[in-house]
Amino acid sequence: MPSEKRLAPRCEFHQSVRLRWMEPSGREYSTLAQVQNLGRRGMGVMLRERLAPGSFVHLREKEMQLVGTAVVRYQEDRKGTYYTGLEFCGGLLAPRELFSTN
After folding, report:
1. Residues with Cβ within 8 Å of residue 53, at least 6 apart in sequence
2. With contact defined as beta carbons under 8 Å apart, do 87 and 95 qualify?
3. pLDDT by residue (tens digit) across 47-78?
4. Neighbouring C-alpha atoms within 13 Å toward the C-beta of 96
5. pLDDT tens digits, one per residue of 86-99
6. What domains lie within the chain, and their CATH numbers?
7. Nearest by Cα to 90 from 65, 50, 56
8. Are strands 28-39 and 66-78 parallel, antiparallel or unpaired?
9. Of 62, 67, 65, 57, nearest to 98 (Cα)?
10. C-alpha atoms less than 13 angstroms from C-alpha of 64 in its C-beta half-sphere
11. Which of 23, 40, 71, 96 has its CA 20 to 30 A from that of 57?
């Protein structure tokens, strides 16, 4: 069994979040991602787009009150969608209650 590489635990979480990023060409993209898990230092999301590791994405979700920037750490192809591991940069603005469960 592979060892856990995360610096902080994540809990299962299912919600949509809006992600924005800029390609090296300068073109800006935006999509709705499905959150799979969430922790204080990162989150896992399902995307239809392929993003290069090291790319920065900006996230915002009104209902959960999430605002922040994250870096793509990896992507795993899952038959036309990509499980994407994101690590937050400088923390995530979110209500405390979100992390007090489990």
Report:
1. 72, 73, 74, 75
2. no
3. 999 999 999 999 988 877 778 899 999 999 99
4. 0
5. 998 876 666 565 55
6. 10-93 (2.40.10.220)
7. 56
8. unpaired
9. 65
10. 19
11. 96
Alpha-carbon dihedral sign for residues 89, 91, 94, 99:
positive
**Which residues 6+ apart lie within 8 Å of 30 measured at CB?**
18, 19, 20
Name the residue type at position 23. Answer: E
Return the structure tokens found at 38: 């969430």
Q: At a CB cut-off of 8 Å and minimum separation 6, what does 99 contact?
A: 39, 40
Structure tokens at 68: 């922040």
Q: Is the dihedral of CA 5, 68, 22, 35 positive or negative?
A: positive
